[in-house]
TrEMBL record, chain A:
It comes from the Bacteria. It is found in: Cell membrane. It is a multi-pass membrane protein. This is Branched-chain amino acid ABC transporter permease. Keywords: Cell membrane, Membrane, Transmembrane, Transmembrane helix. The chain crosses the membrane at residues 16-35, 47-69, 89-114, 121-138, 164-184, 214-238, 250-277, 284-303. The keyword Ubl conjugation does not apply. Signal peptide: none annotated. CDD domains: TM_PBP1_LivM_like.
UniProtKB/TrEMBL annotation, chain B:
CDD domains: TM_PBP1_LivH_like. The keyword Cell membrane applies. This is Branched-chain amino acid ABC transporter permease. The chain crosses the membrane at residues 6-26, 58-78, 140-162, 191-212, 224-244. Its main location: membrane. It comes from Paractinoplanes durhamensis. It holds the Pfam family BPD_transp_2. Keywords: Amino-acid transport, Cell membrane, Membrane, Transmembrane, Transmembrane helix, Transport. PANTHER family: AMINO ACID ABC TRANSPORTER PERMEASE PROTEIN, BRANCHED-CHAIN AMINO ACID TRANSPORT SYSTEM PERMEASE PROTEIN LIVH. Belongs to the binding-protein-dependent transport system permease family. LivHM subfamily. It is a multi-pass membrane protein. It is found in: Cell membrane.
From TrEMBL, chain C:
Residues 4-233 form the ABC transporter domain. Pfam families: ABC_tran. GO terms for molecular function: ATP binding. SMART domains: AAA. This is ABC transporter ATP-binding protein. InterPro entries: AAA+_ATPase, ABC_transporter-like_ATP-bd, BCAA_Transport_ATP-bd_LivF, P-loop_NTPase.
């Protein structure tokens, strides 16, 4: 019984699949040269959805923090971009700065909100989003309640504008995918898994829960701010009610629950699925949203690990080296 | 003088928020979950009463007589079908399912009743519009007094139920320690289902008062959930009478904000909530609850 | 007559097999002591009988009924009551409320609030006190009284004297003796071997989740018990 084991991060199949994914990610930069602009715009939408799903998963799946108020950061990112472009900051630079500003907003809000647990955190973040929406609506410079357009991109021809927006969105997507990947790979990954499984036990084992949650909250604030700013760059017009709307949280919840909460791959799968569903069924309005709600409840109750768990349990190897495996030592 | 009036109106508005909040507080107190569909269930109840008044020609308060038992059953079944299962799934699952439920209820109402804004004020007759004039600038509406009186009665009734009855003892025992409650013969799931039924019925009452007092539509629920939550937190989590004070503080904040500028009304409420959250009291509040639930 | 028959019980506690292949009978009216070192599986075993801990293997037949699938609160209605480890009173309820909540759905029987307060006179002045403000002995008395309020046929008591002063232990055992006049069946977990042997008619000793001794206390030498308890004869070790 004294077999020796070593801990490995990846086998050959995992290394191959991970390399393929990296190549695909880089190849995606070539899309604007090969496809029509409406496809480029669609892919931009998909990437922003993917960012949102990933960020919501970072909070709920890794930190155990269910937020119904991430639209606070989505809206803040979008309006920070408007604010900066009104002060003659180039639009694409403004988007990057707005994402950073959203991260700073998260740092400012963290002491207040991370004190809350469970449902209190969920509704507490929501109140912040509502308060921000009301504040923005009061500011006539930001268009008030009627909405505002993003200027400063007019100088660029529409095709190039869409391509630039797409590239920036893709860059943000890959950056955040990498950040989350590193988060799971480093020592923090094991701590995150421990918190996810049992926060009290993790704390009693010496996992420093608070700094980790802080880090996750700030990362999610940054990512959601970027997603909001990029949504603005993609649609060029926003209104406080819609960009600060709670429907974003509903979409994020759906994508993450259906894809697989607490997994790296799940939100990616969920975002793609949601994107397709949106395309096919959004015309049905309220019925479509009823369907989304029912599916989300069904997944929460009957398949809490999401669709990815079905694939993950059957695959003989992991697509990405984010876990640990035991192998007999030679 | 207008500020004195604002404070007075805010206190009465607080009665409405307390009525919204007590169901949320009850479910949180007994099951340790926040029901994110609470506001939408209140609006569902308001629509049920609206349907009854338009089809039967009855006033909204008469229509409550059949509507409340129906909503009690809705709450009971809601627990038996969705919540009971979600409680077994870990701490996050009830949040995810009740949020999903909120989306379903809201959009089902949208589909069934269109996005039109409605009011039960007309159907309620004189009570919705009448008032006592105290001075030139201060008047007390019949409805405001009725709502506050109802809130006090409901909270007092819940208090007596929890303190004085066998079922109340079972609820408190289950709230404090569900596993041990089972060991003395208390079936937690049945207690939870009844608590949910009561919460949904009080939400219906609040929804109808909202509909009589002003207007409502299919998407009114989330705002009411937020107000209810703010009242619960300002008043102190887990304290029934606290929700009355919490509701009043929120109501006064909103009416004073509205006196300065109507746009500031709701914002002022949010700010007071965030200040309470940031205050040392807010901090100790949550620290205390953590110990109590551990 | 056999009141309860446990066959091949197994139960996990986390990753640990806390109870493994345990079989025993409890006869109506007897007092059975469960002994064993810390971590031997006594608490887990009692909790499986009460339905508070899931079984991984085995069956429990109680009063000719298989208890598989019978929830803890339904077992209480069938007459099984557990005084849990750590007493687990409802801290924000008074002593009287703790008793009443257990009595609300009780089986018919001799115990009600009045008879309980007669049998536990020390509790009478404490009726209105919050359970969180009781001393250890008062808590244990309340916990036993609370279990009795359900009028059990089978009373399971975990850690009867743990953390109690000698005087409190005397009181609790005096209560137990009064109880046994009533022909109740009792399974108790007791760390104090002398207490266990003098109170119980039969003793079961667990070692690492298995039964290593199951015998009537009459005629049992202390040496035999100690050997079973430690898994070796401690007295003969150099």
């Amino acid at each position: 019984m004294s077999e020796r084991w070593t801990v490995i991060r990846s086998g050959t199949p995992t290394r191959i699949s991970a390399s393929v994914l990296v190549v695909v990610g880089i190849a995606m930069f070539g899309v604007p040269f090969a496809f029509r602009t409406d496809i480029v715009q669609q892919l931009t939408t998909l990437c922003t959805l993917l960012i949102m799903a990933m960020m919501w998963n970072v909070l709920a799946g890794y930190g155990g923090l269910v937020s119904v108020g991430q639209q606070a950061f989505i809206g803040f990112g979008a309006y920070a971009t408007i604010f900066l472009t009104q002060r003659d900051v180039p639009a694409y630079l403004a988007i990057v700065l707005a994402a950073v500003a959203s991260g700073i907003l998260a740092i400012a809000l963290a002491p207040l909100l991370l004190r809350l647990r469970g449902g209190q955190f969920a509704v507490g973040t929501w109140v912040v989003a509502e308060a921000l929406a009301l504040l923005v609506a009061l500011d006539e410079e930001l268009g008030g309640g009627t909405g505002v357009s993003l200027r400063g991109l007019n100088a660029i021809t529409p095709d190039w504008r869409r391509a630039y927006t797409y590239w920036l969105t893709l860059a943000f997507t890959l950056l955040l995918l990498t950040l989350v990947f590193l988060l799971l790979r480093r020592r923090s990954g094991a701590a995150i898994r421990a918190i996810r499984d049992d926060e009290e036990a993790a704390a009693s084992l010496g996992v420093r829960v608070k700094p980790l949650k802080f880090m996750l909250f700030v990362l999610a604030g940054f990512g959601c701010g970027a997603a909001g700013a990029l949504t603005l760059a993609n649609t060029l017009f926003i209104q406080p009610q819609s960009i600060f709307g709670v429907q974003w949280s509903a979409y994020m919840l759906f994508m993450v629950l259906v894809g697989g909460i607490g997994t790296y791959e799940g939100p990616i799968l969920g975002a793609i699925l949601f994107f397709l569903l949106q395309d096919w069924f959004a015309q049905y309005g309220a019925w479509y949203l009823i369907g989304l709600g029912v599916v989300a409840i069904a997944f929460a109750l009957f398949l809490p690990r999401g669709l990815w768990s079905l694939a993950d349990d059957r695959l003989p190897f992991r697509l990405l080296p984010v876990g640990y495996a035991l192998r007999p030592a030679r | 003088m207008t500020y004195a009036n604002a404070v007075l109106q805010g206190v009465f508005l607080g009665g409405l928020y307390a009525l919204f909040a007590c169901g949320l507080s009850l479910i949180f107190g007994v099951m340790r979950i926040i029901n994110l569909a609470h506001g939408d269930l209140a609006v569902l109840g308001a629509f049920l009463v609206w349907s009854l008044t338009t089809h039967l020609g009855a006033g909204p308060f008469v229509a409550l007589i059949p509507a409340l038992p129906v909503m009690l059953i809705v709450g009971y079944l809601l627990h038996r079908t969705v919540l009971a299962r979600s409680l077994r799934g870990g701490p996050l699952t009830p949040l995810l399912t009740t949020f999903g439920l909120a989306i379903v209820v809201q959009n089902a109402l949208l589909q069934a009743y269109s996005p039109d804004v409605r009011s039960l004020g007309g159907a309620a007759g004189g009570i919705a519009t009448g008032s006592w004039r105290l001075t030139d600038q201060i008047s007390l509406s019949y409805l405001g007094v009725l709502i506050l009186a109802t809130a006090v009665l409901v909270l007092g009734g819940l208090h007596l139920l929890l303190r004085r009855t066998a079922f109340g003892r079972e609820m408190r025992a289950t709230a404090q320690d569900p596993d041990t409650a089972a060991l003395v013969g208390v079936p937690a799931s049945s207690v939870y289902a009844k608590a949910t039924a009561i919460a949904v019925a009080t939400a219906t009452l609040a929804g109808v008062f909202l509909a009589v007092r002003s207007t409502f539509d299919a998407s009114s629920g989330p705002t009411q959930l937020i107000f209810a939550f703010e009242a619960v937190v300002i008043g102190g989590l887990g304290s029934l009478w606290g929700t009355l004070w919490g509701g009043m503080v929120l109501g006064v904040a909103q009416t004073i904000g509205a006196t300065i500028d109507p746009q500031y009304s709701i914002l002022a409420g949010h700010l007071v909530f965030l200040i309470v959250l940031a205050s040392p009291r807010g901090r100790s509040l949550f620290a205390f609850r953590r110990e109590a639930t551990a | 007559m056999t009141l309860l028959r446990a066959t091949d019980l197994g139960a996990r506690h986390g990753l640990l097999n806390a109870v493994r292949g345990v079989s025993f009978d409890v006869a109506e009216g007897e007092i059975l002591a469960l002994i064993g070192a810390n971590g031997a599986g006594k608490t887990t075993l009692l909790r499986t009988l009460a339905g508070a801990h899931p079984l991984s293997t085995g069956t429990i037949v109680y009063a000719d009924e298989d208890l598989a699938g019978v929830a803890a609160h339904d077992r209480v209605r069938r007459g099984i009551a557990l005084v849990p480890e750590g007493r687990k009173l409802f801290p924000e309820m008074t002593v009287e409320e703790n008793l009443l909540v257990a009595g609300h759905r009780a089986r018919p029987g001799r115990w009600n609030l009045d008879t309980i307060l007669e049998a536990f006179p020390a509790l009478r002045p404490l009726r209105g006190r919050l359970a969180s403000r009781l001393s250890g002995g008062q808590q244990q008395a309340t916990a036993i009284a609370r279990a009795l309020m359900t009028n059990p046929r089978l009373l399971l008591i975990d850690e009867v004297s743990l953390g109690l002063s000698p005087k409190a232990v005397e009181e609790v055992y005096a209560n137990l003796a009064a109880l046994h006049d009533d022909d109740a069946t009792v399974v108790l977990v007791e760390q104090d071997l002398n207490r266990a042997l003098s109170t119980a008619g039969r003793v079961i000793c667990l070692l690492e989740g298995r039964i290593v001794l199951d015998a009537p206390t009459a005629g049992l030498t202390r040496d035999e018990v100690v050997t079973a308890y430690f898994g070796f004869n401690a007295a003969r070790q150099p």
